[in-house]
Structure formats: structure tokens, C-alpha cells
Automatic annotation (TrEMBL):
A probable RNA chaperone. Forms a complex with KhpA which binds to cellular RNA and controls its expression. Plays a role in peptidoglycan (PG) homeostasis and cell length regulation. SUPFAM superfamilies: R3H domain. This is RNA-binding protein KhpB. The lineage of its organism: Bacteria, Bacillati, Bacillota, Bacilli, Bacillales. Transmembrane segments: none annotated. Keywords: Cell shape, Cell wall biogenesis/degradation, Chaperone, Coiled coil, Cytoplasm, RNA-binding. Its main location: cytoplasm. Has an N-terminal Jag-N domain and 2 RNA-binding domains (KH and R3H). InterPro entries: Jag_KH, Jag_N_dom_sf, KH_dom-like_a/b, KhpB, KhpB_N, R3H_dom, R3H_dom_sf, R3H_KhpB. Forms a complex with KhpA.
Length: 207
């Protein structure tokens, strides 16, 4: 239950009733007073209770944290999560003894979790939010690996004078490849295919 209409002898008591029903604090609530009520003659005749509408305010990133903890626990992982929020963007740093299980081969598990985390965040938001998951600085290590890979494959494309296609990657990893070669005078890069199988092609520039 995320919203409720409650009544009480006073506005304050009606609000307290609503908060109790929703099991939330006042800080988590959006309160709208529908009717302030009316005290009757001698407190008996013409009495009208106060009516309030209270809606639970969900913090999308808090919901993401709950989701990640739930998934991690199901995988037998005790995870610690630090969140850095910058407007509509949030970066979640995951840590724990078995964190490698959350990263997976070439970050595939982490990427899948990131996709799902983004869906969770936007389910609770009226504005589009972006979510990035990282674990033990994996993203930076992966970025360095991809940048080196881009250079090697660019050399191969030039040496063989043929296109080189990379494996499918999420958009932010493709950006690393594009950025690494954007100033190259020998090759150009472009993406082909449809998500989630979109991939980068490195092609020698025509002279």
C-alpha cells in the first residue's frame, strides 16, 4: 500500500493514523488535508472528522539499494553498498567478500544487475534516472582494458586493411572504445546491430 485516506478527530490524529497504516515516517509522506473537520456543539452535535490523504514518497535509489541487497542475499553474498547521487544519476559501489560473483565473467553479471537496477529506479520515478553499478573499482579496470583492446584492434585493422568487429557490449563500454579511437587518423569506429547485441566495428579510413 502506497497511499491511504484516513480520518480522525483532528488533522494531526488523522495524519498519525495514515502514517501508521502505511508504516512510514512523516518525512516519507506527502500529506494533503482534504477536510480540517469541525467540532460540534458541546463536542457532540455537528461534529465532522478531519480527513487527510497521505501518499508514501519512494526514493528510487533507496528502492534500488533494497533490490540489490535482496538479490545479493539470494546469491549468498553479504554486500555493502555506498551510493553517490548527482541529480538524476546515481553510482552504487558494491563491496563484499564474494563480490566477484556479482561482477561475473567480463562484468556480465554486474551489467545485467545494472540494467535491472535502472528499471527499478525508473519504476519509482517520474523523471528518467540513470544508475551505474561498480564493484571494487571494476569499471575503471575494465575501462583501461577496453582502451588497450581498442588500440590493439585498431592496429590490426590497419595492418590487415580489414574491418574488425568486437563482441557485443553495453552502450557505456562502447563509448570507451569510441573515445579511445576518436582522434585516430587511421581508423574510424561505428556501432552495428540491435540492443542487447549491439557491437562496435573498427574500420581503416580510406585514403
Amino acid at each position: 500500500m502506497r497511499e491511504v485516506t484516513a480520518t480522525g478527530p483532528s488533522v494531526e490524529e488523522a495524519v498519525e493514523s495514515a502514517l501508521a497504516q502505511l508504516n512510514i515516517s512523516r518525512e516519507q509522506a506527502e500529506i494533503e488535508v482534504k477536510d480540517e473537520g469541525k467540532k460540534g456543539f458541546f463536542g457532540l452535535f455537528g461534529t465532522r472528522p478531519a480527513t487527510v490523504f497521505v501518499k508514501k514518497i519512494n526514493n528510487p535509489f533507496d528502492e534500488v539499494k533494497k533490490y540489490l541487497i535482496s538479490v545479493s542475499n539470494m546469491m549468498g553474498i553479504d554486500v555493502e553498498i555506498d551510493i553517490k547521487v548527482d541529480g538524476r544519476h546515481a553510482e552504487f559501489q558494491l563491496a563484499g567478500e564474494k563480490i566477484a560473483l556479482l561482477i561475473g565473467k567480463r562484468g556480465q553479471t554486474l551489467n545485467s544487475l545494472q540494467h535491472l537496477a535502472g528499471l527499478v529506479a525508473n519504476r519509482y520515478s517520474e523523471q528518467f534516472l540513470t544508475v551505474v553499478l561498480d564493484a571494487e573499482n571494476y569499471r575503471e579496470r575494465r575501462r583501461q582494458t577496453l582502451a588497450s583492446l581498442a588500440e590493439r584492434l585498431a592496429e590490426k585493422a590497419v595492418r590487415t586493411n580489414r574491418k574488425v568487429s568486437l563482441e557485443p557490449m553495453p552502450s557505456y563500454e562502447r563509448k570507451v572504445i569510441h573515445s579511445a579511437l576518436v582522434r585516430s587518423k587511421k581508423v574510424e569506429t561505428f556501432s552495428e546491430g540491435s540492443e542487447p547485441n549491439r557491437y562496435i566495428v573498427i574500420e581503416p579510413k580510406r585514403k
